[in-house]
What we know:
The chain has one domain. The protein is about 85% helix and about 0% strand. It has helices at about 10-20, 25-35, 40-70, 75-100. Helix 2 (about 25-35) runs antiparallel to helix 3 and helix 3 (about 40-70) packs antiparallel against helix 4. The longest helix is centred in the middle third of the chain and has 32 residues, at about 40-70. The radius of gyration is 17 Å and the shape is elongated.
Amino acid sequence: MIAASSSTLLALVGFALAGVAVGPIEPTVYRTVTERTTERQRATALSAVTMIVYIGYLSSPPLLGAVAQVFDYQTLWLVGAGFALSIVVLLGVLRRTLAAKKP
């Protein structure tokens, strides 16, 4: 929606929808890690997830800025949509893998 928008209002609506959709993900990830690890592994697992999140927070602005500078903002949002789609696919693979390991 954001990549295809030609008006500011439509882009703002797209940003609002993206924020509402993405906002609950991080707390859910932390809760899932806590539920799926033993008490002994919990601190290590949470610190690993936190490290990955921080790497994403710190690396995404310059990387996305470079994409926007070389191409344009519509390409930037299409790249973001591609990443989001790849995450959905990888989560499906992970779900099947975890389901297969359950007794």
